[in-house]
Amino acid sequence: MLKEIWKNRKQIAEGIKNSIIRDQFVEEVAEDRMSICLNCPNIDKEGGSCMVPKTQPCCSLCGCSLSLKTRSLSSECPDGHWPALLNEEQEDELDRL
Q: What is the domain count for the chain?
């Protein structure tokens, strides 16, 4: 689990940053993504599959907190329900602005 968190650290940091510093576009994307997640059979509302405890709802496929993952523009649904909008290079460039 720790290995998976480390591997996705940039996307996790992006989700945290975007949940603190709110942007209207990011919030609209997050709302659209969350509406898909809330109807997905892979949603974990109880938190048993969350990588980080007490961050539910989570995705039972990847263990990510959906409130953070849906705000990470470089993240994608592990089941293909919604795509990443940025690649890693674009995310790095956006961070430099």
A: 1
